[in-house]
Amino acid sequence: MAQAGSREEIEPGTPPEAQETQPDVKPQLKGSPCVKFVKESKEVIVADGANLRFKALENGVDLYTFVGKMMNCGGYGQCGTCVMEVVEGMDYLSPRTEVEDRKLKRKPETYRLACQTLVHGPVSVVTKPGQ
Length: 131
Ligand code: FES
Known about the structure:
alpha+beta, five-stranded mixed sheet, two-stranded antiparallel sheet, 5 helices, 7 strands, disordered N terminus, binds FE2/S2 (inorganic) cluster
């Protein structure tokens, strides 16, 4: 039996069943979200919720292949040419959209369409994966 004022009496432990029902919480972010473009050796600090394609273009990152440069849809999720591979920080990106599920159905889970992806933490991406 615990003595009055002991730690056991003041802070009872959380029962295991209560721990299992707690929501899945993402790790806390440290500092501003940032994007590391691996091939370009460029790291960019971005605002929370920044669009990955916009930030790449804004910072001079060449994300399109030759065909993509000529025929990209301008960020509307129609062409599928803004593909990037996420090598770190997948949990800090917005979930895949329906458009991405359709356009990337034969690609690895780590591939994202930059125009459909919002950044919420530190991530590393490879532009034009497989080239
Ligand atoms: S720019 Fe066309 S799908 Fe992203």
